[in-house]
Specification:
Radius of gyration: 21 Å
CATH architecture: Orthogonal Bundle
Number of domains: 1
Shape: globular
Strand content: 5-15%
Helix content: 40-55%
Order of helices and strands: EHHEEHEHHEHHHHHHHHHEEEEHHEEEE
CATH topology: Cytochrome p450
Length: 400
């Protein structure tokens, strides 16, 4: 079989890191999917995959599409990372396998069972609070406030300085983008957030019994080094918070726009887990990630050389009609397994169990206590090179 030369790869004049793209990515996603299994994005001189099959294949072949050269546009083989690389996100096997195993044990399903009742009680208290308010901001008062009320405590963080957590996570995800204004501004403002996080990740600053202390305890067991432990705690700070904040924000935005689905959830609160999962597929809070080719590889009949950056459009894959029936419909009974909202393969989001637990207990608490959710003011988007979410979501609820 003769392989088509790389020049045959269709070029698409779309900047996936522009404000216009962020405002309404869906028509652009369709163009990218329809252009071919792999496209050339001339704005930033890179390749992209937007169809589900290709995105899933790239995510599940870490030998060919590596993470250690950076999961952003920056290539660590050619330039210095802006911070010490993540031992989880920006690492390949076998190094990744060892550190990932530690975090997987710290955030295991058994551990989630232990924290579940506390997380659920906090969700109910938060819902009582917003029902009493009647009108509130779905982002600040709920999507951010709830995870910030449970996750830092579970991690073992001190009370002071937690206002740095959301800006820090936003900075990390902005830094995966190209050298545009969003990335530059985030890095320029990053010093206090980085200093706070670096200090909080040290063993002496973490409360006994929390996720952070459990990570440091693996040093005593000889599984990780004392240098690696703070970096693994740092991974949890971004992985365990932003995915949840944006995921809950996406779910609230969906519930307010699709009242029929909200009533279905009210009739059967056991659908809360799936309603959250479908919101993650539908809105894809994590929109993109990069990989770098380790060898010459063929994608969709086109040859891509070694050392090339591949941009995976997770949001486009999650609405690919080749994979999903009526992909642009939010349906809380959809069979959502296989969506790439949390990634796929060995690098699947390490904080996913926390995000899923918090999303589920929050939606279940809302379903039991709230009769209706309505958007009651102008919705504002928060711009980020990697994440898709809102800055402000004015909501009004009526008590059940």
């Amino acid at each position: 079989m003769v392989t088509a030369p790389s020049t045959a790869i269709p070029g698409v004049d779309i900047d996936p890191f522009s404000i216009a793209f962020f405002d309404d990515p869906f028509p652009h996603h369709e163009r990218l999917r329809e252009a071919g299994p792999v496209v050339r994005l001339d704005t930033w001189n890179l390749h992209g995959v937007a169809r589900y099959a290709e995105v899933h294949a790239v995510l599940n072949d870490p030998q060919t599409f590596c993470s250690s050269r950076g999961v952003g546009l920056s290539d660590f083989a050619k330039e210095k990372p802006w911070r010490p690389p993540s031992l989880i996100l920006e690492a390949d096997p076998p190094a990744h396998t060892r550190t990932r195993a530690v975090l997987s044990r710290v955030l295991s399903p058994a551990v989630m069972k232990q924290v579940r009742d506390g997380f659920a009680a906090a969700a109910e208290a938060k819902v009582d609070e917003i029902v009493a308010m009647g009108s509130f901001d779905g982002v600040a008062d709920l999507a951010e406030a709830y995870p910030l009320s449970v996750f830092p405590d579970a991690l073992g963080l001190k009370k002071e300085g937690r206002e740095h957590l959301i800006p820090y996570a936003g900075l990390v995800f902005n830094a995966f983008g190209p050298p545009n204004e969003l990335r530059q501004q985030a890095i320029d403002r990053s010093a206090p957030h980085q200093a706070y996080v670096q200090e909080q990740c040290q063993r002496e600053n973490l409360a006994p019994g929390g996720f952070g202390a459990c990570i440091h305890a693996r040093v005593d067991a000889g599984e990780i080094t004392a240098t690696e432990a703070p970096l693994l705690v740092r991974s949890l700070l971004s992985a365990g918070l932003d995915t949840t904040v944006y995921g809950i924000g996406a779910a609230l935005y969906c519930m307010a726009r699709f009242p029929g689905e909200w009533q279905r959830l009210r009739a059967d609160p056991s659908l809360a887990r799936n309603a959250f999962e479908e919101a993650v597929r539908f809105e894809s809070p994590v929109q993109t990630f990069f990989r770098t080719t380790t060898r010459e590889v063929e994608i969709g009949g086109h040859t891509i050389g070694e050392g090339e950056k591949i941009l995976m459009f997770l949001g486009a894959a999650n609405r690919d009609p080749r994979r999903w029936h009526e992909p642009d419909r939010y349906d809380i009974t959809r069979q959502t397994s296989g969506h790439v909202g949390f990634g796929s393969g060995i690098h699947m989001c390490v904080g996913q169990l926390v995000a899923r637990l918090e999303g589920e207990v929050m939606l279940a608490a809302l379903a039991r206590r709230v009769a209706s959710i309505e958007i009651s003011g102008p919705v504002k988007r928060r711009y980020n090179n990697t994440l898709r979410g809102l800055d402000s979501l004015p909501l009004t609820v009526t008590a059940a």
